[in-house]
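Pipeline run #58 for the internal structure catalog. This entry was flagged by the ingest filter as a single-chain record with no existing model, so it goes straight to prediction. Upstream metadata was stripped on purpose; only the residue string is passed forward. Reviewer on rotation: M.T. Logging verbosity set to normal.
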Amino acid sequence: MTERIPTRLIETLSPTPLRLTPSQAGGAIHTRSFSGRFRNLRLYGAGFLFLLFFGTAWLDWGGRQAVLWDLSAHRFYIFGATFWPQDFILLSALLIICAFGLFAITVVAGRIWCGYTCPQSVWTWVFMWAEKTLEGDRNQRIKLDAAPWNADKLLRRGAKHGLWLAVSLLTALTFVGYFTPIRPLATELFSLRLEGVAGFWIAFFALATYLNAGWMREKVCVHMCPYARFQSVMFDDNTLLVAYDAARGEGRGPRRKGSDPRAQGLGDCIDCTLCVQVCPTGIDIRDGLQIDCIGCAACVDACDTVMDKMGYARGLVGYRSQRQLEGGRTRLLRPRLVGYAGVLLVMIGAFVWALQIRPLVSLDVSKDRGLFRENAIGQVENIYTLKIINKTQQARRYRLALAEPGPFELHAPRELALAPGEILDLPVSVALTDAAPASSSQGLRFAVTALDDPGLRSEAGSTFTAPLQR
């Protein structure tokens, strides 16, 4: 997207009194190539996200995949940390933090997430690049659409859809590879031996990527994404949005470069419609704030290029608040933003604290269905099954004991060796050493403690039942 806008287009373009944007006319949207600082920022951001998404899945960490949500084993590896289903509350907290972060960003800069980092937008820009590379720029694609089917059109369309499908397939493979080890998955896929659940999900996500980024595009943003519907309630007069400065730009009209627009009763807008031609949702930003605008700033880059060629100041279209448009100054600190930021900081702090105190050894106790029994020496016994999980990524030795023995005696191995991530189901018995129980039901607690780290400890309680002596 680096095509230069011809100077002659700016100098001689005639106005069109009645003009419908592609989205208003209901036709296909063909975007024009452009360059600019916001486009470069979006490219750098998209490149980083692509590297992060496609590269992380292939990283190794300690002899296994660095990031893997192993659903079959109920274990989730994120570099040096292992998470278990019991830790799902942390995932919920992380999603809530991301939501509040998005709300805070929206208050500051509107739909900047949509325009720069949303996967739908990023993949749509990639598909548009493939379209431009194989079918030509905007005018060439419009002509190709109108042309009858022939060998050239069939070849270009076939190559475009082939590239779309290739990107979709790699995207689906990578996404599923975060839930199933990606190396054997890729081997099975490219050797045509893939079947079962993994094959279904790869086909599903490949088709979803192909349809969303290739065919539906802006329709996903406008009609399917719920964020487009409720994000406006988070705007205020100080939110930075992509906006057209009507006071400076009106009235619109063509003119020659170097002429004085004020002498002709004109504003700075030359009515070239390049802001419309580069818009991925096909809107005219000069019509004001619209739900279709994703805040990508493509129109800002196009307009700034025109302003440079005409010798006018940049910023006819730019990021500005309603307060700025009315002649005031944008206030960064205001109650809503401070509130979001405060809640966000508290939640991040709580999340970090929860990660720090997360137990790395887990102990669960299940009591046998039988109430009690008598052992060989006449003591009342209860049977339990202990489930011990070593959540660390190192082999550990643990000491098993009763936290407060009291009148009870534990009959079980006192030291246990567990491999990294091992789950041990251990049947044990507890005997009552008192001749006469104080109650028919008493509480007791089991404890496991790492031999090399006393701070690595977990406790779990249960009950001991015994017959009352009459």
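catalog note: The two ends are 92 Å apart (CA to CA).
catalog note: The first helix runs from residue 7 to 12.
status: ready for reviewer M.T.
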